Amino acid sequence: MNPIYQISAFGHTKHFTKEINEALSKQLGEFGLSVGNEVVIDLNGSITSKNPKISAVGLFFGNDSKLAYTRPPALSDYDPIIPIVSSLERCSIELPTNVSAYNAMPSGGPNSPTRIAAAAIEALGLMPSRRRVFLSYRRNEARKAALQLFDELSERQFDVFLDTHEIRPGAVFQDVLWHHLSDCDVMLMLDTTSYFKSRWTTEEFGQANLKKASILRIGYPGVVRDNNLSVTDTLALSDADFTEDETFTASALDRLADGVERLRSKSVAVRQSNLVGSFRAAVKQFKGDLSGPGQLRRVLATFPEGKELRVYPVVGVPTSEVVNRIVLDAEEHECALLYDNIGILQSWQEHLEWLGERVDRFHWIKAEASYQALKGILG
C-alpha cells in the first residue's frame, strides 16, 4: 500500500522513544491507519525525496543548540515542524537558532508520549488543531472542581468550555450551549450525587449522545454508575482524590487530564466514521461508490455518469480555515465538506452557506440531508 502520511523524526532521535512510537501507533489505529502501510516513519532522513502526494510532519528532537538543523529531504519548506525538548525551560539550550521560532513541546512531564503523538496527528490534518473539551457539572456540587479542571486543562492547551466563562449575557443559553457541545471532542462529565436531577446536565448528557461525542465520566465517591448510561469511559474517584476544599489532588488531576488526552483521538475517529457511514448510504442510493480515505480523511465518491466528488468529513463546527485547507487539497476537483449540523447555531449555518456560495467547485453536505445534497450536486 502506498503511504499517505509521513512522520519525519530527526535531530537527536535517541529521544524518539518506544513510548512515543507506541502512542503514535495507538492513536493512528483509532483512524484505521497503521505504520508501515498508510503511515511511514522517516528516521534521520531515511527517505531521500519529498513525495508531494503525502501529508508530512517533522519531529525535531533537540539536545544542543549547536546541533546542525537541516530539514530531511522528505520534508518540504511548508511541512510543519514540532521541536521536542526535555523541558520548555531548556529551549534556548537545546534548540538551534533556526528552529527556535517554532513552538516546542516537552518530552518530559505527564503523559508526554501521548501528547507528542496527538500534536503530530493534528499537524497531519487527522484531528482538529483546537483541542476542545466540554465540562458538564452541577454548580451546587462541583463548581470548585470544575474551575480547577478548567485551569488545568487550559494550561495543557485544551480549549475548555465552561458555561460561566463562555455564555454572554443576553445570549439564548440553550442554543449557545448546544453549539459549543457540537464543537467539542470530549465531554467531561462530573457525575456527582444529583447530576441527573438537573434539567441542564441531563440534557447535556443526552445531546452528547445524540452527537455521538465521547463522554468521559468522572465518578464521584459513593456515586454508582448506571450500567444503562452510554458513556465511553469512566474514571472512578475515591475520597483520597480530593482535598479538604473539595478540589482534586494533583495526582487525580493528572489522571483526569491523561484520560481526556487518550480519549480525544478515539472520539474524533468515531465521529468521522459515523459521518462517512451516513454519507455512504446516500451514495449507494445514486448507485455510486465510495473509496479512500486519503489526506485529511477525504473519501472519493464516484457515480455511473462519470461524476466524481472529493468529500471531506469534518468533526465539530466548520470554519473558513478548514474550507481553505480543503480547497487547496482538492485543487481543481469538485469537493464537498461533510458535517453534522445538529446543534450548530442557525446564524453560523447561514454564514457557512454564504461562504460556500463564494468558493468555486465547493459544496456543503449536512450528514442528515446527504441524499438531498447529492441530488442537488449531481443534478
TrEMBL record:
PROSITE patterns: TIR. Keywords: Receptor. Pfam families: TIR_2. InterPro entries: TIR_dom, Toll_tir_struct_dom_sf. Residues 129-267 form the TIR domain. This is Toll/interleukin-1 receptor domain-containing protein.
